[in-house]
Every structure is written in structure tokens, then in C-alpha cells.
Amino acid sequence: MWLDNPKTRSLPYNPPRIHKYPLSAPDGKLQSIVDSLSTLPNGSFSPDPSGKPIHDLYDAQKLPVTTTSPDSSRSILEILHTPGHTSDSICLYYPPDCSLFTADTVLGHGSSVFEVLGIYMASLRKIIAFGENGEKYGPVYPGHGPVVSNGLGQVTTYLKHRVARETQILEVIQKPPPSNRYWTTWSIVSSIYADYPRDLWEAAARSVDMHLHKLESDGLVEGQGGEGKHTEWNFIG
């Protein structure tokens, strides 16, 4: 690609560094990428000091972007480790434009998909705190959807939505269950989403189930058996 581009053909090739936030456990897909990189000709990329193809990122790390900026000390990308969507999710902060690149953690529209809700909500709080009450970053550049000019407002809305849903679940589960001894994930959904079309309930059940597991880890509810949307729950406060 470098040689095929007339704009770069006459320029010396500067092997890029490949960066990634490290995973806490081995991953087959990542290993296949590493194996593929290892087959490339020498000089295709710059390995890390130990010889690994991928340079590990770390939280609060600052990577230089260019030295041609009038203020090269600000021309950096700052790494924010924001797990939740995946364990290695990050955001990138670019000071010259006061911009935050959020990938799949905060989208331009709709809701993000996440693996562990409690960890995801903690990351949203981290991004909000990083914003310094709107003084640090303005626009958010998501991985999907349009650019959000009021980035801090968007992140705050994400968190408020999750907190409001959590409050709804706690209010419901403290009432007498409609049948049997305990509330189930499905009966909670039936209560909260009673005014919504039923074809939305299955997706809602997955979200409510994640909230319930977070509340269980918080010591507020306790699972009593069952599987999936039929899992039974008890409020223990």
C-alpha cells in the first residue's frame, strides 16, 4: 500500500508501532493476530523492546502524536482504560482539540453493549470525572454514530439511564411478587415494561438480568435459582 500510493512512494517508510491494551487472560483471536504479524517481513512494524509485535498500553499513558505542532507537548493521545464493553476497551483524549474518542464505550446514538454492567458504570463515572465538569473535553467521537458536541452530557445521560433503571428494579423487587415466592427476571421486566410492546421484552430481560447481577455483587439482591429470564431474585437490602 505504501509503494502503491504516489504521495508516499518517494518518502522513507517509517515502520509503525502497533498498540493495544493488554488482556488479563490469553485470547485465541489476539494470538492469531500476533502470529500473523510475526510472519510479516522485517521492518514492517516496530516491535516493543522485548521483541513482541504489539506495544502494551496502560492507563493514563501519553503517546506523542507529532512534533510539528506549535505546542508539541500538548500534541498527544492520553489513554483512558474504560472497561465494560470489553475488558480492554479504552478511550483516547486529544488535548489540542479537547476531544475524546470513545470507540464502543459511548456511542453517537442508542445504547452501548457491555460485558459486565458494574464495570461499565464505573468506567462511565471515570469518563465523567475526567471531564472536570466540562472543562477538559467537549466533543465525543464515538465508534458508531454521529459526533456528539456535548460529550460530557452524553456520558452523563448514559450513566443516569443505568442508575434510573437500577432504581426501578429495586423498587419493584421490594414489592410482593405477583406469584410464587420470588420475583423472576421476567416478572420484573413485565412490571417495568408493561407499557412497552412485548417484542421488546426479550432484549429488556437481558439488560435487567445484567442489572440484577450487578445488584447481587453490590449485596442488595440474591439469586434464588432458575436460569435466564426465569431466574428468581430476592431483595436482601
UniProtKB/TrEMBL annotation:
Entry-linked SUPFAM superfamilies? Metallo-hydrolase/oxidoreductase (SSF56281)
Top-level taxon: Eukaryota
Q: Where is the LACTB2 winged helix domain?
A: 184-226
- Listed InterPro entries: LACTB2_WH, Metallo-B-lactamas, RibonucZ/Hydroxyglut_hydro, Sec-metab_biosynth-thioest, WH-like_DNA-bd_sf
Tell me a GO biological process for this protein. Answer: secondary metabolite biosynthetic process
Metallo-beta-lactamase domain: residues covered = 74-116
Listed name of the protein: Uncharacterized protein
Organism annotation: Fibroporia radiculosa
